[in-house]
Amino acid sequence: MMDFLADYYFWIKALHIISVIFWMAGMAYLPRLFVYHAESEIGSEKSETFKIMERRLLRGIINPAMGATFLFGGLMLAINPGLFLDHWMHVKLVLILAMSALHGMFSAWQKAFEADKNRRNSRFYRIVNEAPPTLVIFIVLLAVVKPF
């Protein structure tokens, strides 16, 4: 089976990169929606519109893209298990776990907004909005430069 997958390694890698792009696009956009949602009146038309946008973004793009990222990334690691020996990969995997935890927090916050139970202000979400791009910078640098 691995020989078969190895023949398609570059296709799998391309699909992994595409999935990451979609996941990160959503992870960058969702907290921006939270900023504007936190500034809107509960029950207003604006608030209800943000609820729909956040739910669709999370369920329609971010969640599937994260799943595809893990699927294709996992296949790449299965094809090339030697990557586990590299220290840069260990750090990258820790950062990916951090991104996944952030994803989980975004999901919880979306549910709080959905139930009109948000307890955070827009400033909080403006700060949080910086976390995904910061993690992406380090993840990409590790994957491309492989510094150690």
Helical residues, percent: over 70%
Average pLDDT metric: 97
Number of strands: 0
Shape: elongated
Low-confidence stretches: none
Strand content: under 5%
Largest sheet: none
Structural class: mainly alpha
Number of helical stretches of at least 4 residues: 6
Instruction: Provide the gyration radius in Å.
Output: 18 Å
User: What is the H/E order?
Assistant: HHHHHH
Distance between the termini: 31 Å
Q: What this model shows, in words?
A:
- It is a single chain.
- With 148 residues, the chain is mainly alpha-helical.
- The protein contains six helices and no strands.
- The longest helix has 35 residues, at 45-79.
What's the topology here?
Blueprint: H1 2-7, H2 9-38, H3 45-79, H4 87-114, H5 122-128, H6 131-145
Helix pairs in contact: 2-3, 2-4, 2-5, 3-4, 4-6
Explain briefly what this protein structure is.
With 148 residues, the protein is mostly helical.
What labels describe this entry?
82% helix, 0% strand, 148 residues, mainly alpha
